[in-house]
Structures are given as structure tokens and as C-alpha cells.
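Hi everyone,

Forwarding the result from last night's run.
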Amino acid sequence: MMDREKEVERLNEADRHIATGELAVSKQIALIEKLKQDGHDISQAVKQLHDFQNGLDSMREHRSHIVQMIDQIDRGLA
């Protein structure tokens, strides 16, 4: 039997990581806009943004799995 409390802790941790990832994406978008305005090459900054977005997608997918596990525990299936 899975421990619901531990899964909830994992969910809270995932939410914190997602919030951090969202902040990083927002900051990177702002940086790209500033670099563009100042006439700088943005190719590396855009690559970094894509890396941040891919990481955020992975974190959200992981969170979804945790939510599914909690649901299974609640229904007595895990």
C-alpha cells in the first residue's frame, strides 16, 4: 500500500519546483525582450528558454503522475 502522506509531500515539492520553473521562464522571456531591444543576439537566450520550457513540461508531467497516484490511493487501488 502506498503512503498517501508521502505522495502529498511529493506533490507539494513538485508544485514548488514548477513555480520555480515558471519564474525562470518568465525571467528568461524578459531577458530575451531586453536583449532584442538592445540589439543583441538572442539565439543562446532562446535556446536556454526552450531548455527551461522543456524542463517545466517534464515537471508538470511528473506532477500529473503524482496526482494520479494519490487518486489511486484514495480509491484503494494502490
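The radius of gyration is 18 Å.

Cheers,
N.
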